[in-house]
Amino acid sequence: MNLTITDGVLGVRPPVTKPHPGFFFQVGEERFRKLVDDHYEMIRNSDISFLFPVNDEEDFAAAKKHAADFFIQICGGPDYFAQTRGEPRMVGRHAPFRIDEGARRRWLEFYAVLLPKLEDEGINPEYIQSFWEYIDIFSIWMINTPSH
Asked: Is 0.85 topped by the overall pTM?
């Protein structure tokens, strides 16, 4: 696998390809939710924790659920996000948070730690790579603040 982070630029929205649906179907919903939970727990004590509701357990749990629902839907699983939150419109949903390239990179670095564990669990590395390529490129769309 190649978990390289593409350079992101404020205001640039490169074309993005959804992950291979085999990723969700091999990982399964329970393990997928654990992946997102583990990611958020890494964020909790990080230098980007200020972007997340880490001091309110109920809001933090809701943020984890929304993120997992979104990724499950994007990866070809049930449309939980649409059922509970409507259209994704992720750029707009992230607009209130000051996301610069550094924050985006940190967010991705945590996934880069977690995703290789899925390969160890027998998930097809090509499917993992397709998920990585999706989050790497789509996360560029979330940059809304110039880097320092």
From this structure: yes
